[in-house]
Amino acid sequence: MAGVSRPLRVLVVDDDALVRAGLSMMLDGIHNIAVVGEAADGDEVPAAADAYAPDVVLMDLRMPRVDGITATRRLRSRRHPTEVIVLTTFDADENILHALRAGAAGFLLKDTPPAQIVEAVRRVAAGDPVLSPRITRRLMDRAAVQAGAYQRARTALATLSPREHEVVLAVARGRTNAEIAAELSMKVTTVKAHVSHILSKLELDNRTQIALLAHDAGLA
Question: pTM for the complete prediction?
Answer without folding.
Answer: 0.69
